[in-house]
Design goal:
It comes from Streptomyces broussonetiae. This is AAA family ATPase. By secondary structure, the chain is α/β, with parallel strands linked by helices. The chain contains 8 helices and 5 strands.
């Protein structure tokens, strides 16, 4: 059996799926884990929120608790990648500070930034079908989520299904251009 000190160092790849609620990020992430050639972890911000205790949070503290959750999520992703793990991130960059935080933490040349788009009418239909999101949440997120305007690759889940999006992302991985979107965004900040 190998000792941990014998594990060769490596930096993990972060496939960062950004889109509104109900845009199809989780379905794409599930497919990516199925089709990628290397072992990979799916880390979703919703999973981090689900780990929090059910202790009621007073309204005047809710923003602080949520902010800390997102910060912890970003640091957990960065830690997994720094340890050499490939990670598929499922996130909603609906506040500018979230992207800034990720830009400061992730190794930009190791991030494939994927824009997950979906037409507003389809987002609304999906929200109604799910029944676990406030109506109109995705529509309210649309403007901010993609405000930075730069991705390595983009998918429209109103046109392509999750397996097609995952195949497109996998194909893009074999010949990623540099600088990456994260490198460009970091240098622009």
């Amino acid at each position: 059996m190998r000792h941990l000190t014998e594990v060769p160092p490596r930096r993990g790849l972060v496939i960062f799926l950004n889109g509104t609620s109900s845009s199809g990020k989780s379905a794409i992430a599930t497919e990516l884990l199925r089709v990628l050639d290397e072992p990979c972890f799916h880390m979703a911000v919703d999973s981090f929120h689900a780990m929090r205790s059910r202790t009621p949070v007073p309204p005047d503290r809710l923003d602080t608790v949520l902010h800390r959750t997102w910060q912890g999520f970003h640091r957990a992703v960065a830690g997994m990648a720094a340890a050499g793990n490939d990670v598929v991130v499922d996130h909603v960059l609906s506040a500018p500070w979230r992207l800034d935080d990720c830009l400061s933490l992730f190794v930009p040349e190791d991030v494939l930034f994927v824009g997950v788009h979906c037409p507003e009418a389809e987002l609304e239909r999906r929200e109604r079908a799910r029944g676990d999101r406030p109506p109109g949440l995705a529509a309210r997120q649309l403007r901010q989520v993609h405000a930075h305007g730069l991705y390595d690759v983009e998918c429209d889940t109103g046109v392509l299904d999750a397996p097609e999006c995952a195949r497109r992302i996998k194909e893009f991985l074999s010949d990623r251009p540099t600088p990456t979107a994260f490198q460009k965004l970091r240098s622009a900040r």
